[in-house]
Amino acid sequence: MFSLDLLLNAIVAGVLLGGFYAAVSLGISVTFGLLDVVNIAHPVFVILGAYTAFVLNNAYGLDPLLASLLFVPLFFVIGIGVYQVYYLSFEKKGESSLRGLVFFFGLLFIVEVALLLKFGVDYRLVEAPYIGRSFQIGEVGIAYRLLVPFLVGILMTAAIALFLSRTFYGRAAMGVAQDALALRLMGVDPVRIKTIVFGLGIATASVAGALLIIISPVEPSIGRAYIGRVFAITVLGGLGSIGGTLAAAVILGVAESLTSTFSGPSWSLAVSFGILLLVLAVRPAGLFGR
Amino acid sequence: MRGRWLLILAALLLAGAIVVTRTVDNRYVYFAGYGILQYVVLATAWNILGGYTGYVNFGTGGFFALGVYTSVFLIRAVKAPLPVQIVAAGLVAGLLGLGIGYLTLRLRGTFFSISTLALAVVLETIMVNWEYVGGARGTSVIRPAPMVPFDNYPSFLFVVMTLLALGAVATAWLIEHSKIGRGFAAIRDNEEAAECMGVPTLRLKLLATTVSGALMGVAGAPFPYYLTFVDPVSTFNLSYAVNSLAMPMVGGTTSWLGPVIGAILLGTVQQLATVTISSELNLLLVGLVLVAFVVLAPEGILGLVRRLARRGPA
To answer: Is some CB atom of chain B closer than 8 A to the CB atom of A228?
Structure first.
C-alpha cells in the first residue's frame, strides 16, 4: 500500500490544498486575530461566495475567478453591514462575548438553511476550462483545479500582508489589536477601521468561495466542516499572524492529505480538530504567536 | 419553602403525564410531547453552562448524539435496559464535557465555543466510520415490550422523558439556589474579580461543563427506542444546537424557568409548524427568532416580563 510516489503525490496535493485553506482562513485571521471579533459565521460567507460563483457560472458561463472579482465589492458591503449590526448590538454595549457568538452562530444557521431552501441538498459545481485537467512532473501529478486556488490563495495572502504593513488602514488595524484607546487618542476612529477591515475579511471569504467550488462541488452544509479547519489554522498560526496563517494552512493541508491518502478521506475532518485541541492544550499562542 | 411547592408541582406534573397515557389514545401526542420534553432537557442542560456561567456550547448535537450512540452501543453489545442506557449516556457525555472543558477552559471562553463546534463535526465523522453502531447508513433498533402499566412503548417513553425533564429542571434549580450557583453567576459577571475573591473558577467551570454535557447525553439516551432508527444525519442535526441555544435565549438565561418557557414555546410552535409548513422553513424561523432575541431582547421573555412588571405598578 505504502509507496514513495503516493507519499509524494499526497504531500504536493496537501501543499496545494494548504494555499486554498490560507485563502479561507485569512479573513478569520484578521477579524479574530486583530479585531477580536469572533466571526464563526465566516465559513458561511465562503459557501455564499461559492454559490454566487455557481449562479454566475451557470447562467452566463462566467469563469468562477472572474465572477469573484465582480461580486467581491458586494461581499465587502455585506461585511460592513454585518459588522455594523454586531457593533451596535453587542460591542458598543460591552457584551460582545456570549451574545456576539450566538449572533454569528444564528447568522451561520440562517444562511445555511436559506441556501438549503433555495438550492436543495444537491452538490453544485462550476465549469471552467482548467477544471479536470492536470500535468505531470516526474511521478507527481498536479491538478489545475488545485493549482489555481493555491496560486490565488498565495496571492491573497501576500496582498493582505502588504495591506496590513503598508497601508494606513492596515497599520491602524494592527493598532486596534494592540491598543484601541491609544489609537483613539491619535485621532483615529477604531470603529471605522474595524468596519472596513471586517468588510475586507468577508470579501476574502467570498473569493475563497469561488476557489472552493473550483476544487470540489459544493452543498449548503459543508461550511460547517470549515469551522474546525479555519480556527485550527488561525490558532496554530498564531492569532493575527498572516505568515503564520499560511504556514499553518499548509501544515493542515499536508496533514489532511496524508490522512486521506493513507487512512481514507472520511477521517480527514478529524485532523483539524485534533490539531486544534493539541495546540490549545500545548501551545495556545500558536507557532508564530506574539 | 418555595422549593417544597415546586416539588409538589413536579409530582403533579408527573402524575398528569401518567394520567394522560391512560386517557389519550392518539400516539402522535406522545411523539410530539416527547420531542418538546426532550428540548426541555437540552435547553436546561445548555443553560447550566451557557446561561449560568456564560460559556457558549455550540456542540449540543454532539453531546446529544453521544448519548444516543452510547445507547445504541449498549443495546447492540449487551441488550442493556433503558435505565442503564440513560446512566451510561450521562456518564460518557459528562466525561466528554469534562475533557473538552479541561483542555480549553483555562484559555479564553471563545476557544471553548469553537472547540465544541468542531467537536460535533468530529464525533459525526467517527460515527459515520464506525460500522458497529450503523455507520453512515444508520441502524434500526427493536423496542422491548412496554413495561406493565403501559400498553404501548411511546407512552412509556413519554413518561420517562417527563421524569428526565423534571430531573434536569430540578438540577438547574438546585444549582441556582446553592453556593455553586452564586459562584457560576460570579464567573459570568466578572471572572477575574471572582477569581480574586477566592471563587475556584476553573473547578466550577469544569463542574458546569460536566453536568451540562451529562444532561445532554441523558436527553439522547432514549432516542433509539423513540425513533427505532438511528443514523448520523438525524442525530447530529444542527437543529439541536440551534434550538438548545435559542430556547434559553428566548425564555431568558438567568433562571431555570427561562429555558423551560423557551423550550415549551419554541418546541410547540415547531411541532405544529413541521406538520403544517415545511421543516426547513421552520428551522429558518428558529434562526431568525434566535437572532432577533439576541439583538433586540437579550434578556429574553423573562426579562421583558420583569421590565413590564417594574414599570406596571408605578
So the answer is: yes
Characterize A149-171 residue by residue with b for buried, 16 or more Cβ atoms within 10 angstroms of its Cβ, and e for exposed. bbebbbebbeebbebbeeeeebe
Residue A212, pLDDT > 90, answer: yes
Cα(A76)–Cα(A205) distance, integer angstroms: 10
Distance, in Å, from the CA atom of A121 to the CA atom of A193, rounded to the nearest integer, reads 38
Distance CA B104, CA B83 (A): 32
Question: Residue A72 and residue A152: Cα distance in Å, rounded?
Answer: 14
What is the C-alpha to C-alpha distance for residues A124 and A218, in angstroms, rounded to an integer?
Answer: 5
Q: How close A44 comes to chain B (CA, Å)?
A: 14
The overall average pLDDT reported for chain A is 88
**Does the structural domain A4-124+140-282 have CATH classification 3.30.420?**
no
DSSP string, A30-48: HHHHTS----TTHHHHHHH
By Cβ distance, the residue of A106, A270, A277 closest to B290 is: A106
Chain B residues whose CB is inside 8 A of the A97 CB are 54, 109-110
All three cell numbers of B62, joined, read: 454532539
pTM of the shown model:
0.87
C-alpha span between A23 and A115 (Å, rounded) = 22
Q: Which residues of chain B neighbour A232 with C-beta distances below 8 Å?
A: 118
Nearest chain A CA: its distance from B207 CA (Å): 19
Q: Where are the domains of chain B?
A: 2-243
The Cα–Cα gap between A119 and B66 comes to 31
**B293 in Cβ contact with B300 (< 8 Å):** yes
Whole-number pLDDT of residue A188: 81
Q: Mark yes or no for CB contact A97/B110 under 8 Å.
A: yes
Q: Residue B143: what residue type? A: R
Taking the CA of residue B219 and the nearest CA in chain A, the distance in Å comes to: 22
**Whole-number Cα distances in Å, B204 to A247, B85, B131, B157, B211:** 37, 27, 38, 33, 11
CA angle A143, A146, A152 (to 5 degrees): 135
What pLDDT score was predicted for residue B44?
A: 95
Per-residue pLDDT band for B314 (boundaries 50, 70, 90) equals very low
d(Cα A175, Cα A183) in Å, to the nearest integer?
6
Cβ–Cβ below 8 Å for A102 and B249: yes
Please tell me the distance from the alpha carbon of residue A167 to that of residue A193, in angstroms, as a whole number: 12
